[in-house]
Fold:
Amino acid sequence: MINSELSHLRGSPFDALRSLLDPLTPAQNFEPAILTIGEPQHTPPQLMIDALRANEHLYGKYPPVGGTAELRGAIAGWLTRRYGLPDGMIAADQHIAPVNGTKEALYMIASVITERAGHNQPKPVILLPTPYYHVYHAAAVMAGAEPVFLPAGPETHFFPDLDALSPEVLDRASAFYLCNPSNPQGTVASADYLRAALTLARKHGFMLVVDECYSEIYDRTPPTGILEICAEKGGSLDHVIAFHSLSKRSSAAGLRSGFCVGETELIQTFLNLRNFAGAASPLPVCAAATALWNDYTHVEENRALYREKFDMAEEIFGSRFGFYRPEGGFFLWLDVGDGVEAAKQLWTKAAIRVLPGRFLSVAGPDGVNPGDPYIRIALVSPPENSKEALTRLANSL
Structure:
């Protein structure tokens, strides 16, 4: 027997891409350029490698699910410095849960905060932006909720229109997943938008799940964090949980290290579930993560490489394909008219692999898929590789 809910999952966008492009022959006169996956290719910081080696003798020990006191302390200190929080607002041993990468934690949290419907009762609702990170949808489905997709187009700075949400839907909601900076569009939510979202969460009793994993890759202005808004409102973390990762901030995707931060009861309940169903981070990984959260120099060096690539892209594209400099993150979201056809053309004519926006979105009741005109480009390769690939791409569309 197989859980019937699994039949409601959407396929991975990368599986869809393989089905689209693998039957096609790429252009033979170019080295293939893979611009699809948000996997940073910058060299990881040496301090991470040094910490792993210095603590390699600890691989023989089972790690605690809540990480180490040193790691939680480093995270609390970073949050306080990064967001200008009052001392003591974030208690290292109460409000923080280190996780083995945020992907599975974003998935698992939905089961913690969603009460399944009783017999003949409507399912709870989980609100999702579209385009969206595919893990959010799987989280909603497997938690027994009804996914409700909220269009996030250019007219609302690529965030869902909060004013368009009906009180009936909001009252049924158990969670609202919000990615800030947005993936794939690279825009940043204003402080006013975050205030409005938090107000709705507390008024209607749902959890605001804020994915801030791209918060440290930004162009000019550090994105406002949801914890700053909580601090404005007295410091309570009620109805909020935020997620952060070292994958993008520190070019350490393979370290699989991140954390979530929220109010005490939620975090402790989440950790209890993870005692059964979560993978704890090995102690050498905790030591490496501690070093990374305590260091800022490598973050700015990393960010400077992305700014260099934003400059390149701006020079290459100008105003073509609706180009704009991403405020945060490292994706370009280009309007090419038909993302699927553009992806096929780029692969067969220029050996460039990009992700059609359709594979990151769902059609609304009107049948319109907001991702259809777009392609997503991941600027993750070193600058010299990125410049060649972007030039080739611009010349091939």
About this structure: The longest strand covers residues 173-179. The chain has a mean pLDDT of 96. The radius of gyration is 21 Å. The CA atoms of residues 100 and 231 lie 27 Å apart.
